[in-house]
Every structure is written in structure tokens, then in C-alpha cells.
Design goal:
Belongs to the MurCDEF family. This is UDP-N-acetylmuramoylalanine--D-glutamate ligase. It contains 20 helices and 22 strands. The chain is of the alpha/beta class. A six-stranded parallel beta sheet has the order 9-10-8-11-12-13, with helices on both faces. Strands 17-18-22-19-20-21 form a six-stranded mixed beta sheet, sandwiched between helices. Strands 5-4-3-6-7 form a five-stranded parallel beta sheet, with helices on both faces. Helix 7 crosses helix 14 and helix 17 packs across helix 18.
């Protein structure tokens, strides 16, 4: 980091200059030298925001969409097309006051490590928190509700947002869900509440003290299982990043009573005095928690007489109507309800939101049923923990599995569910972990390998294999337990191709929705 910079004609230390950047309207943004590493949607939102603030912005990335690169020039940011696995000479020469790192870049990346040693490093979430007051609809900037977890983040974020909307609030789901938080805080109409999905990558770059530390109204880590180990370097580092979601929470730290690790995270968090720990459980809730009594979702946390009474939030019939009746979806609803109740959303509004909700595609989504065989797309199951939830929901499956395992071991998943499978269809460029796990734990189960390497042919072959072994009463379940990028553009691309192959194979014989895959 350079020892000094010029601000309003006076030399000041870069550290002192950054300390005052706690508002959109702070003067110190003007002329600030900023490097942005990465040019995805997040990287562009960072550059666009900082240019609007008057900073001197250079974006470093090995590549980027042509239209995005052109837009950088239009808005007044510079673009350096350069690899980041070595430190760009231009980055060293720029001597930035602050480096904003896109969440895709891991901490062991060479340019990130240089930035940590020579400058101040922020993530996009820290920047968004510092400038959250650009548009204020009420007396203060909109509160944040923060959500993370190995699985279920997106559905829970959407549910929570729907509950706020049902209460008449202008709410938005943002962050890791696909809408950059910086785009949201600059919305000219503003919002009453931000529901922010946070990945472990974003949490890694979030501080827990100082002006850039998020102070959420309510927060949750839904569950925790090993994932993204190659990015974080260890399971301990991954869990430490997830635990940051609870830091400085004001009203309620919502945790999973069935996941001991989330309770320990809450116990270790430094929160605002008076903040409460609220558990969500699939069973009868203890006083202070939310859960289920008979067929009713109940709140025993945000009611005056929580030791002797409970508030009805919704019924299991409501969940079934909305396609949320599976065990893991039910837990998502309970977590969302606890977050909404922490912000004083009335029970009636929660029920209204649940009744009108429909989960996103590729999350245990029914594709078709024909000849007594159900076809289900859970392409969103990109790790073993997520696949566990969907595998546990069905009696007998033909399991379509495989892909990019991100350093995560699939052995335990196969040991638990492999022996009960009708058969397994293995996709992915590296099939060895799956094949070896089935050889150890379920040697009697038929294993069919997809030999096609052309993306267009992978799912048609997988569907043909599955159809050859499935029997009436079975579910053919796409639950890859792995990322998709070895053969597909995304988990959504993988799921769409699976559904298309199913419909093509079944022709007109299947029951179900054969219209547009997009919800109205």
C-alpha cells in the first residue's frame, strides 16, 4: 500500500482515508484508487458503483464478455485483460488504496495474496454495506437479513422475501442469489428490507469489525457440511467463513436444532446485546423456537407467553400445496418464518406467502410420470449434503449421479443410499470416485456409465440407461452430488437438459406439465 495519497489537496494516509468511508455521501470516495479483481456480474457492479462515487477504478480479469468490457469504457473504468494467477505488473504500478475481490477468486490466488500484503482488501458485500444509505425510504437505511448454509440458501432467501412482501414491505432477494447487492442499494426507489443470500466465498471476505462489518437484523446458517474445500483450503476454514453470518446480529440468530454445528456458531458469535438464539426444528419446538406440532407450523419464539402457547404460522397442507412438503423444504420454511417473525411479520402474512410460493426449478422438481415411474430433477444438489435431502425423500431410486466434486468425498453418501438404489447412472468426466464408492459399499447395485462426452448427448444417454432399469414405483432422480461445470454451463443447464431428454424419451406418454419450463 502506498504511504500517502492526495485528498482535497491534503496528503493523508490511505488507512485514515478508508476509515471514513461509511456512507455513500462520504467525500473520501472521490479520487480513491481502486483495483477490482474479476469481471463477472459482481465485479461489474463494484466497478459501476465506484465510478459513480468518483473513484479511479481499474478492473483486472483474464477475460470478460465483450459487451461488459465495452460498458466499462463507457462508464469510465479502465480494463486490464490479464491473468490473475500471477500478479499483474499494472496492479503493482497502480498501488491501489483498496482492492475489491470478486467472490470467485480464492484466498490462495496470487493476485489476492499480493493485495492482502500490499493494500486493503474488501469484498462486494463490505462495499455494499458501506454505501447502503444511498436511497433511504424510512428514518434509516433498510435493514439486512442474512442467510447462508451449505444447502437451501436460495429457497430460504426467496421464502423470506415473499413473507416480507406479503406484509406489504418492499423487499428484495439479493447477493449470491444472482442480483448483486450493490445494484440493489443503488435502486432509485429503495427498499424496506434486503434479504441477502451469502456464499461462503462472500463471507470469507467480510470483516466482523469496523465500518464495513454488516449488522444484520436477523441471520441464519441453515446447515453445514463439507463443501468448496478446494477454495477455502480446509473444512475448518469453510465453517469459520459460514459462522461469520451471525456476527453483530441485532434481533435473532436463527439456527438448525438438528445441526449441532450451527448452534455452536451462534454460541460463539459476538452479537448485539439482547439478540436471541432461535432454533428451528422438524419436531415440537421448545420455548423460544419454531417447529411443528401435529400438522401445524408453530412459533414459540416471538410470542409473549412462549412457555404455554404458540402461534400458528402455516399447516403441512399449505406446504404440500406449494410443493414444500419434503423434509428439507419444510426446514427452509421454518427458518424463513423465524427470520420474518424476528422482523415482526405477522403469522397471517407468513401463511399467505407460503400458500402462494413455488420453489425454483431444479430443486427436487417433478419432471414427468409415465408407466408408474417418476422423473425428478434435483440438479441443484451440487454436493453430497444436498443430495442427501433428495435421496431421503424417495423410496426407491434410479440415481443419476456425478460431475465435479470440488474436493468433497462422496463415499459416505454412497454408503448410506447406494445399497437401496435400484441402479445408478454415472455421469461426469471423472467417474472414478463414484465407481470406487459403489464397488466398496453397494457392489450388487447395477452401475451404468454414460460414455458420451458431447454435452448434447450426455443426458439423452443417461435417460436411456435409467429407463432400461427403472420399474413401476421407482423414481429416476437426478441428484448429482457434484458441480456441473465439467460438462454443463451450470446446474440449471444440466437440469434443463435432463428434463428435455426425459420428455423426448417419453414422447407424449407422460403425465405432468409439458409446457414452458418457465413459471408465469
Amino acid at each position: 500500500m502506498s504511504d500517502s495519497s492526495t485528498w482535497s489537496g491534503s496528503p493523508v494516509s490511505a488507512d485514515a482515508r478508508l476509515e471514513g468511508l461509511d456512507s455513500w455521501y462520504a467525500e473520501g470516495w472521490k479520487g480513491l484508487r481502486v483495483a477490482v479483481l474479476g469481471l463477472g456480474s459482481t465485479g461489474f457492479s463494484v466497478a459501476d458503483t465506484l465510478v459513480e462515487l468518483g473513484s479511479d477504478v481499474v478492473v483486472y480479469a483474464p477475460d470478460g464478455p465483450a459487451d461488459t468490457v465495452e460498458l466499462l469504457d463507457v462508464i469510465g473504468a479502465r480494463f486490464e485483460r490479464t491473468p490473475l494467477d500471477t500478479v499483474p505488473a499494472a496492479l503493482e504500478q497502480q498501488a491501489p488504496d483498496v482492492v475489491v475481490v470478486s467472490p470467485g477468486l480464492p484466498p490462495h490466488n496470487a493476485s489476492v495474496r499480493w493485495s492482502v500484503e500490499h493494500s486493503t482488501v474488501w469484498g462486494d458485500i463490505e462495499l455494499a454495506w458501506r454505501v447502503r444509505d444511498k436511497v433511504v425510504r424510512g428514518p434509516v437505511a433498510a435493514p439486512w437479513v442474512t442467510i447462508t448454509g451449505t444447502n437451501g440458501k436460495t429457497t430460504t432467501t426467496q421464502l423470506t422475501t415473499a413473507m416480507f412482501a406479503a406484509a406489504g414491505l418492499r423487499a428484495v432477494a439479493c447477493g449470491n442469489i444472482g442480483v448483486p447487492v450493490l445494484d440493489v442499494v443503488r435502486d432509485p426507489e429503495g427498499f424496506d428490507v434486503l434479504v441477502v443470500e451469502l456464499s461462503s466465498h462472500q463471507l470469507h471476505y467480510m470483516p466482523t469489525t469496523g465500518d464495513g462489518a454488516v449488522v444484520p437484523l436477523a441471520s441464519t446458517c441453515l446447515n453445514i457440511a463439507d463443501d468448496h474445500l478446494e477454495w477455502h483450503g480446509s473444512a475448518e476454514a469453510y465453517r469459520a467463513a459460514k459462522a461469520k453470518v451471525y456476527e453483530r446480529t441485532v434481533m435473532a440468530c436463527v439456527y438448525n436444532t438438528a445441526d449441532e454445528a450451527t448452534r455452536r456458531m451462534v454460541e460463539g458469535a459476538d452479537v448485539v446485546e439482547g439478540c436471541r438464539a432461535v432454533g428451528f426444528t422438524p419436531g415440537v419446538p421448545a420455548p423460544g423456537d419454531v417447529g411443528i406440532v401435529d400438522d401445524v407450523l408453530c412459533d414459540r419464539a416471538f410470542t409473549e407467553d412462549r412457555r404455554n402457547s404458540a402461534l400458528e404460522l402455516a399447516t403441512l397442507a399449505d406446504l404440500a400445496q406449494a410443493g414444500l412438503a419434503s423434509p428439507h423444504m419444510t426446514m427452509n420454511v421454518l427458518a424463513a418464518a423465524a427470520l420474518a417473525r424476528a422482523a415482526s411479520v405477522e403469522p397471517a402474512h407468513i401463511r399467505t406467502a407460503v400458500q402462494g410460493f413455488r420453489a425454483d426449478h431444479h430443486r427436487t422438481e417433478h419432471v414427468a410420470t409415465a408407466d408408474g415411474i417418476a422423473w425428478v430433477d434435483d440438479s441443484k444438489a451440487t454436493n453430497p449434503h444436498a443430495a442427501t435431502a433428495s435421496l431421503a425423500a424417495f423410496e426407491t431410486v434410479v440415481w443419476v449421479v456425478g460431475g465435479q466434486f470440488k474436493g468433497v468425498d462422496i463415499d459416505g453418501l454412497v454408503e448410506r443410499f447406494g445399497p437401496g438404489a435400484r441402479a445408478v447412472v454415472v455421469i461426469g468426466t471423472d467417474r472414478t470416485p463414484v465407481l470406487e464408492a459403489f464397488a466398496r459399499h453397494a457392489p450388487a447395485v447395477p452401475v451404468l456409465q454414460v460414455e458420451a462426452t458431447d454435452t448434447d448427448q450426455v443426458m439423452p444417454e443417461a435417460v436411456r440407461h435409467a429407463a432400461s432399469v427403472a420399474r413401476p414405483g421407482d423414481t429416476v432422480l437426478l441428484a448429482p452430488a457434484a458441480a456441473s461445470f465439467d460438462q454443463f454451463d451450470s446446474y440449471a443447464d444440466r437440469g434443463r437438459r435432463f428434463a428435455a431428454a426425459v420428455h423426448e424419451h417419453l414422447g407424449g406418454t407422460a403425465d405432468g406439465d409439458h409446457g414452458s419450463p418457465e413459471r408465469p
